[in-house]
Specification:
The protein has 109 residues and is mostly helical. Helix content is 66%, strand content 0%.
Length: 109
């Protein structure tokens, strides 16, 4: 990615000083330090911001409930769970086993 795209991920830290946004930035920064691809970091950031709009990220049970009941595709829910796993590990929280998401094949043979 271009340098200007990389800085986009961390600009919000300067423009907003909210605690929640700061916690998301911490997760993204840790991923950056571990060498994750820019596209991966960007997607995880988008997923965490999407979760933040609907529930309190510091309440794992509320996040789990929202993901389980959201009217979203199974693949999107899987991505939300995976992204939230990074948040959980970074902030020392725990949650029960990830929400199980079963995939139904849309191909007919």
């Amino acid at each position: 990615m271009k340098p200007q795209q990389t800085s986009y991920l961390f600009q919000k830290k300067n423009s907003q000083s909210s605690t929640k946004n700061g916690k998301i930035i911490e997760v993204l920064w840790e991923l950056k330090k571990t060498g994750r691809a820019e596209a991966t970091i960007k997607n995880i950031g988008k997923a965490l911001h999407a979760l933040e709009k609907h529930c309190n990220l510091d309440n794992p049970e509320a996040v789990r409930t929202w993901i389980a009941t959201a009217d979203k595709s199974d693949g999107y829910k899987r991505n939300l769970c995976s992204s939230y796993d990074h948040y959980i590990r970074q902030h020392g929280l725990t949650w029960r086993a990830r929400t199980r998401i079963s995939f139904k094949s849309s191909l007919r043979f």
